[in-house]
Amino acid sequence: MAAQAHQISMTIPVLETERLILREPREADFSAMLAFNDSPRASFVGGGRDRQWVWRGLLANIGHWVLRGYGLYSVDTKAGEFIGRIGMIYHDGWDEPELGWHLFDSYEGRGFAVEAARAARADYHARISTHPPISYIDPENARSEALARRLGAAPEREAEVFGKLIRVWRHPAPEALA
């Protein structure tokens, strides 16, 4: 008896901001993700791992979209440069969904992260939940904490994530953003 093929599919929204396109993850993103993994900035998001770990991360993000209906967007400039990943994630063992981000080194400090994070957060509120999300931020990651503040988030508590004590930042409710 032949096995039946099952197709799982979903449409990942494409979000557009003034300067950016937030889109689905693609295999073509892998080389830039691999380069970021080897950079010092990746230490705050579990970087410095082997090639297969990065590959599994790409596949896990695609699976996250299928299972939860949201995930990390791949972020492109309107000129077509892939500059990082930003969106909502909710891993097994976490307290609740997180708005997470990482931009590649040469794209930081230009306002791209706040622009993309606002779009991803608004999409999550519009499609999934109006509950204010959190962001897990390493207390040594001053740039991420500054971004969280720009997004209106405030430190709420500490939690252990992947064996490390992390600061939990709470984002404002959607009605407070209007």
Please characterize this protein's 3D structure.
The structure is a single chain. The chain is of the alpha+beta class and 178 residues long. The chain has a domain at 15-130: Aminopeptidase, CATH 3.40.630.30. The protein has helices at 30-37, 51-68, 112-127, 142-150, 174-177; strands at 15-16, 20-23, 72-77, 82-89, 98-103, 134-137, 154-161, 164-170. A five-stranded antiparallel beta sheet has the order 1-2-3-4-5. It has a three-stranded antiparallel beta sheet with strand order 6-8-7, with helices on one face.
Q: Determine the structural class based on helices, strands and strand pairing.
A: alpha+beta
Largest sheet: 5 strands, antiparallel
Radius of gyration, whole Å: 16 Å
Unreliable sequence segments: none
Order of helices and strands: EEHHEEEHEHEEH
Strand order of the largest sheet: 1-2-3-4-5
| CA distance, first residue to last residue | 57 Å
Query: Percent of residues in helical segments?
Result: 25-40%
CATH class type of one domain: Alpha Beta
The tally of beta strands, per DSSP, is 8
